Every structure is written in structure tokens, then in C-alpha cells.
Input
Amino acid sequence: MSDADDELLRRSYEHMHFARTLDNGLVTWQRQGLVPAYPPARGQEAAQVGSALALDRSKDFVFPTYREIGVAVAWGVDLVGYLGSHLGLWHGGLWDAARDRFAPLQAVVGAGPLHAVGWALGQKLDGLDGVALSYFGDGASSQGDVHEAMNFASVMSAPVVFFVQNNRWALSVPLARQVGGESVAARAAGYGMTGTVVDGDDPIAVYRATHDAVELARSTGRPSLVEAMTYRRGPHATSDDPGRYRSLEDERAAGVDPLERLEGVLRASGLADDAWFAALVEAEAPRLEALRATLVEPAPMPGDQMFEHVFQSPTPQITRQRAQWREESEHA
Amino acid sequence: MPETATATATATLELSMQGAINRALRDSLADDDRMLVFGEDVGVLGGVFRMTDGLQAEFGAGRVFDTPLAESGIIGLAVGLAMGGWHPVPEVQFDGFVFPGFDQLLSQVARMNYRSRGAFPMPITLRVPSFGGIRAPELHGESLETYFMHVPGLKVVTPSNPHDAYHLLRRAIAMPDPVIFMEPKSRYWNKGPVDPDAAADLEGATIVRPGRHATLVCWGSMVHRCLQVAELAAEDGIELEVLDLRWLTPIDEESLQESVSRTGRAVVVHEAPLTAGPGAEITALVSRLCFRELKSPVERVTGYDVPTPSGDLEDEFIPSVDRILFGVQRALEYRRG
Output
């Protein structure tokens, strides 16, 4: 392994561990009533961090769904803003999505891939070499928009990477009842593009597969698909009870947790020791506490904000309703 | 400036609505190098209605291009392009095929500016050949304004003549918000004067024929028919005012109030089905804005609550001159108590 690989292993672990810590924190804070609801990404950290690190922060663009906290951590999205969505402050989140090159959270999980294709086509028309990374899962792959996105990308040669986190569960429905043939990557051939299956719990394998796909898109404009095989080790969301649809045996079949796996690699190769791990945990504590502090007392969202961004140029009707809201809320 | 250009720029032209729309697209493409035109068959063919005729040859396949046959794809592509700073002007080939793209239109186009708190404006103008009247197959003659008007974040406009078509389309394209541009396909080939350089004030509604006994409230394809009705009624000494709303979002409430308060009666005419249609909204507005001046309940002459029927029955469904006259008669003959 080269020095660069060593550094990648350590960076991956740092991001994955913080994503896990934050993920655990959010579940706890949901139980404490600080967060209305949260969809944990537990188990998908390697897929998320490995893929995000393969992108160029200065020119590429991320199109997430809503279970992408590992991507957000590795990409460097303003996390206070990111949590704004899960806090119920604003649907899409509160980070500057244009500046951070990280699209607003997307509830319609099949919709984003088309936006990624459009953005990527725009790069080509502008003569730029940015690549769009479209995140979605095995569940979203059932949606017609995902087909339309892959077909458009191929026909138009849009530099986009379709990154599938196949976590084997779409809420309560297992892969076998979701994806005919149980492979999204196999569909890529039908669109005339490369489809690569990768161990989604190995961040280096994910990094390499994504990096190849991004470089293909950057140098040739061709789209491709990477399917990272992983496992959703938590519930769909804090409101979910996986015990109703899967057993502990099912969960154990997922194998070793990707964080434990990477820790083993780091220790075995002598890249990290007890002191390194302890320092990492210590460094996380103030970051986590700072985030928790924003959750305890989030800046309140002024009510008139619901009228503010309906249009760039508001209609008289919106302006009147806003004035009426102001008047009636003040007299309430 | 070359003399020929000056001469072209100042002349009033005699154009069909197709010619006016084609020219508006051409002039907008020339003015705004971030504008893109795309959709099914809009490139090489020039569109099934020829609205984009010649544009690909003039501006290249990078700015005017064909897409696969997938409306959700077309509209979703527009969202991504807009996020990248482009100004998409996609076409959906026929009204009824907006339905396959409804999620992208309602959940994405209409909400992205809101969702992103203004980080990603959606300066998209979606052109939709609309309304019936050409004996088309199923889902080729629908009137979808009811759906569009109900969606927060969309603006909706429809022209009734070539001059308005030119200026409203250019205005829609220049706007920073998404606009649904509903083209009355039954009027595509009717000619009229177009002055591309007129300082057009097309903000709101316009009175296309003044009158004093009742106001016919209409838009798009029904404006011409209402003018025919007014012509006939005039022979019996009934002076009908014809108010072309043009913008359905936002509705020009001031013009509506001014006209109906003066005439005291309103008949709303649209092709879309009756129940919970645009006429219901307009009736509610009139009852609030003109309550004191109203001499009769607001009448609605509309399509029935049935799926838009096939060509043979189309004339029974779309408000006819006779049905509109019956509506006018009901309004005029209404007596209190």
C-alpha cells in the first residue's frame, strides 16, 4: 500500500467514525425529544465516505436523498445546516446548497437522478468537466425516473455517476422483493454503460470504483453506475421497528460492521494504535457537543419564511396572504 | 444598426400564433445564451406543431435538442439544468402528457426554489400545447390549468392571439420563476398583427371587447369564442364585455373586480371540467370583490365532469357559442326572490 492509500484509510476512518457518532447521537437526541425524526445511515458509512472522497470538491456536485450523513460529513457540508432538515426547520436543509455543491435533501428518492443528469449535461454544454454524483438506493431503483435518468444520461452522454447504495432494505421490503434479478448494476449494460458491483463495506474498494467512474465521466462524458453492496444496520427511521420484518439472524448475516472492519485493517497494518483511536474520539467530542447545543436551542424559523421562497418574484396573492398571516398571528 | 434590421424591428407583422411563438423562441434564444429548448421532436423535425421550426439549424444541437420520449425525464432534466444556471424552455408535446411528468413538475420544479431557500431558482418555461378543438386522440386535448393553478410555486399563462403569444412567451422566459405556458392549439394557425417592439404591458388581464351588461371571463382558446358570442349578442342589443385573463397565476383580481363591478354580472367560460375548476376560484373572487354590485349569481359555462371525450363528441363538451349564450341569458334573466 502506498502512503496515499494509508492516508485514505485513516481519513476514511475519521469520517466514518464521526458519521457513526453523529448518527448515534441523532438517534439518542430523537429519543430525548430534540429531533422529531431521523433516518440512520448505520452500516453505510464506508459506501458513503468512500464515494464522497473520490470526488473533486471544487468542481463536482452531489445529489443526495435523505440518508446521506456520511456523504455530508466527508464532503464537508455545514452540518448545522444539514441537520436543519431533520430538525424540521426547513425541508431541504439550511446549508447553502449552491455554495456547498450538495443539493437539498430529496424525499422523492427517484427524482434526484434526473437532476444529476441535467446538471451534468449543463457541465458538458459549458465545456466544463464537473461530474454529478447521484446517490440513491435499491428501493429508489424501482422508480421510473431512475430508468429515465439512466437512459437520458446514456443517450445524451452526460457525465454522471449513478451511485447505488444497495442496503438490501427499502423500509420493510427486502432486496428480493424489490429488485428483479437482485442487481441494479446489471441494468447498466442495457443502457450501454458500465455497471460495477463493489463491496460497499470496504471504503477503499468503494473509493477506487467511484474514482474510476468519475474519471471516466470527466474524460469521456460517459455515465456509469456503481452499486455498493452494503446493509442498513439500523431501522429505516427512528419511527420504524425492524423487528416486524427481519430477524437478528438476518442482521447478523450482514457480516462484520464496516467500522470494526476498517479498525482491524488499520491496527493490523500498523497505521493506527490505541493512542490514535483515543485521540480521534477525543477530537470528536467538542464537535458533537457543539452540534447538540444547536439542537437544544435551534434558531427559530420565523413564520413569514413560509411565504419567502415560494417565488423569486412573489405574486400579489402571496404578498397579501403574508400580510394577512402577519396581522392574524400578531392578534392571536 | 443595419437598415434591414431596423426595418424588421419596427414593422408590425402579420403572423399566426405558431409564427409568433416560433419568433418569440428565436428572439429569446438570440438574447439569452443560457436558454435551452428541448423536448420530443423539437430538434430536427421542429416540433409536431412546428413551434421550434428552424431553431436547431440556427442555434445548434447544443441549445435546441431532441430528448427521449419521457416527460418526467424532460422536466427533471430541466430542474438539473436550472440548478446549473441554465434557462430551460422545454416542450411537452401534448397537454395530457404532462401527467407522466407531474411529479417532477409539482414536487421538483414548483418546490426547488422553496426547498433550497432561493439557492436554486427555477427559471423554467414549460410550453404545453393545450385545450381541445382539433379532433385529437385521447389525452391530446386536455385543459390542465386547474391542476397548475393549484400548485404553489408555479405561474400559469395562456395567450389568445399572436401578439400576446409573442410577448407573453418572451416575458415568461425572462422571468426568474417557473411558468407554464399553455398554448391554445386550436388557435395556432389563426393570423393576427404582431408588433415585436411594442412596449407590451402584459402583466395582467385585458379587456378585449368592452361592454356593459355582463362580463365574459375567459382565457386562451375560449377568448375568440367569447368574442363571437359578444358579436351575436350585440345584434340583440346586449353588450357583453370580454375579459381575457391571460394570467391564471396570478389572477389579475383588480381587473376582474373593475370589470364585473361595472357590468354587475359575470359568466366564466372554460374548457376544463366544472367541479373545483378555475371557474370556482373566479366565482369566489367575484363574490368577495363585487358582492354589492352583483346583479346575478356568477354563471359558469365549462366542460362537463367527464373525461375529455373523443373527437366526435368534442363539440358537445367544449363550451359552444350557444351554451355560452344560454349562460349569458341565465345571468341576465336572474331575478331576486
About this structure: Chain A has 13 helices and seven strands. The mean pLDDT of chain A is 96. The longest helix of chain A spans residues 3-31. Residues 307 and 322 of chain A are 6 Å apart (CA to CA).
